[in-house]
Amino acid sequence: MNVLVVGANGQIGKMVVEKLQEGKQHNVRAMVRKEEQVADFKSKGIEARLADLEGSVDAIQATMKDIDAVVFSAGSGGSTGYDKTILIDLDGAAKTIEAAEKAGVKRFIMVSSIASNHREKWSEDMKPYMAAKFYADQMLEKSGLDYLIFRPGMLENKPGTGNVKIGTETAIRAIPREDVASTIVSALDYPTISRQAVDLISGDTSIEEALKKLWLN
Amino acid sequence: MNVLVVGANGQIGKMVVEKLQEGKQHNVRAMVRKEEQVADFKSKGIEARLADLEGSVDAIQATMKDIDAVVFSAGSGGSTGYDKTILIDLDGAAKTIEAAEKAGVKRFIMVSSIASNHREKWSEDMKPYMAAKFYADQMLEKSGLDYLIFRPGMLENKPGTGNVKIGTETAIRAIPREDVASTIVSALDYPTISRQAVDLISGDTSIEEALKKLWLN
């Protein structure tokens, strides 16, 4: 499969790109916003495509030629204002979803956030971000795409353990970014896990086993 | 019909409430956020119900007992931050839509904004607001409600003329708030104008004629 990673320069995005590149099972394409990021990826032998999530749906769609699956791990980050929360985390995601539908992309894997689907659990300072993620996920669920939404717990920079818990109503726990990236990469090999939205936290089941259980659900 | 006006203390909301109260054809209920606003409306003989759009869907739903139609004209206004744009203009609207569905409300009239359905027309400073309105409208269109979305042009405080233009791709022009309020009130009498989203600007057709044309569409 040709896989486009949107937000390839982000922390999880970078790991997904690297793991796909190492795995050699799929062809990875990195979608990034800046020319210098394109050069960065190219120097590592990775094809990068340029588009801005604040740009048009058409411009985003142009990066999806020959793409079979999109991984969306972009985000405005914690240092920008709430205007960017709306324009990147929500509108940017929704435009990517629209572009994927127009481009005939089969699969869409979304990196969401744990508890974004439960308003009563949104902490005061995270509310705008959670709402943006919630509505982006809603747009994906209401699209015609073959989607898979992962709602990871609190993201940590510890090395991955390879063990996770996947479920629809898990506790709110942490997970290393590396395990999120590994789960996304493995999930590409389970095309029958379709139109599902699940929590993803650290656990005691291997990623492969957890995905198999989800597939048998 | 029993009509609940959400955002009854806003500029358009107040006019809708007054016109409904004067018209006597429907029973108006004002949804407001503050106790003193409840008292204000009560002193004018208008039943007011207390709920905060930043509160729970259940709390909003509690204001919808015996309600046949909801008019949503609430907004965070220009003096608050973009966090409130997400939490009121989008999430508050979406919660009201969910509450209306749960409460079995038949009709939902939304006050949106002209060009909110065309990203390429969003001006730089209005982008977050436009996006919030766009996704709120999307949630309504994807709901099971019998909805009518008005996208008024630039709102003016001039007295209404009683003449408007209603269409799906009008020019971006102004309209007095009073004409928006009058159109909403009149639209309640056209229950067959259902599941439509239209622009609303000043024009040369009477409100009644414009609504009749829309009904015959």
UniProtKB/TrEMBL annotation, chains A, B:
<dbReference type="InterPro" id="IPR016040">
    <property type="entry name" value="NAD(P)-bd_dom"/>
</dbReference>
<protein>
    <submittedName>
        <fullName>NAD(P)H-binding</fullName>
    </submittedName>
</protein>
<dbReference type="Pfam" id="PF13460">
    <property type="entry name" value="NAD_binding_10"/>
</dbReference>
<feature type="domain" description="NAD(P)-binding">
    <location>
        <begin position="7"/>
        <end position="190"/>
    </location>
</feature>
<dbReference type="InterPro" id="IPR036291">
    <property type="entry name" value="NAD(P)-bd_dom_sf"/>
</dbReference>
